[in-house]
Amino acid sequence: MPAVCRWRSCFAETGLAGLRDRPRSGKPRRSDDAFRQRVLSALEQPPPAGQSTWDGPALAAHLGVNVHAVWRLLCREGNWEAAKMIPLHRAQLSSGWHKLDAQTDPRAKAFGNRLPEVWKATQPGESIAFRFRGTVVRIYDLVGPDAGQVAISLDDQPSVVKPRFDAYCTYHRLASLSVGEGLPDAVHTVKLTIHPEQPDKARILNQRGEKMDDPKRFDGTAWYAGAVLLVGEWVE
Q: Which of 42, 112, 148, 189 is packed most tightly, with the most Cβ within 10 A?
């Protein structure tokens, strides 16, 4: 279950008491407590138009804070302290993937301090495959105007298609693609493939009153991926 969903479930059952941190040494910081309460209050409000749930970027925009501060809090509350970030080059990448140069590519340069590397593929059928032992796996990636959709295959489960485009995608930003959560602590096989169909970008943008300033800028099925986030161990 995603961290945000666990928060909401705990809040519904036990109120704020169910969301308190476990005891820690040292004096609590008031600024941390205040920020945490702001996030909790936001989660009780409806998510932005065009989104079914809150995510890190949406919370950050709503609160006017840095998205990474939100992610750190969500990870801490969602028991992500044990999470590992695995550079994407350790996965099996199809031939159409190429690593962006952090010195010359604007996206790699902009996000290089957060992602160890940024890879890009544009053609349907390009894929990422890997195995791991653990309970949670996500892909740390970018969403943006030229991004498309990803088909997720996890073990023997039916494939699920998820867009890498939302109502805020007039620009590129950091995101995470949830592949599997609450999994049995066993070895899992993952394959992620660029889907041939683009999402209906004009309709999605219209949910926030946005329009395509240049249709060519929004045309594409690209996927920008940088790392595998997992709670568990990588299996070579």
A: 148
Per residue in 199-210, pLDDT (tens digit) is: 999 999 999 899
Q: Is the pTM of this model over 0.85?
A: no
Q: Mean pLDDT throughout 202-231?
A: 94
Same domain, 106 and 156: yes
Q: Could you tell me the CA-to-CA distances from 148 to 48, 64, 109, 137, 152 in Å, in that order? A: 21, 27, 22, 20, 13
Categorize the per-residue pLDDT at 51 as very low, low, confident or very high, splitting at 50, 70 and 90.
low
Q: What percent of the chain has pLDDT over 70?
A: 81
Higher pLDDT, 118 or 21: 118
Q: Are residues 130 and 162 in the same domain?
A: yes
Residue 196 neighbours by CB under 8 Å, 6+ apart? 124, 125, 221
Residues 97, 63, single domain; the answer is no
Domain that holds residue 193: 84-235
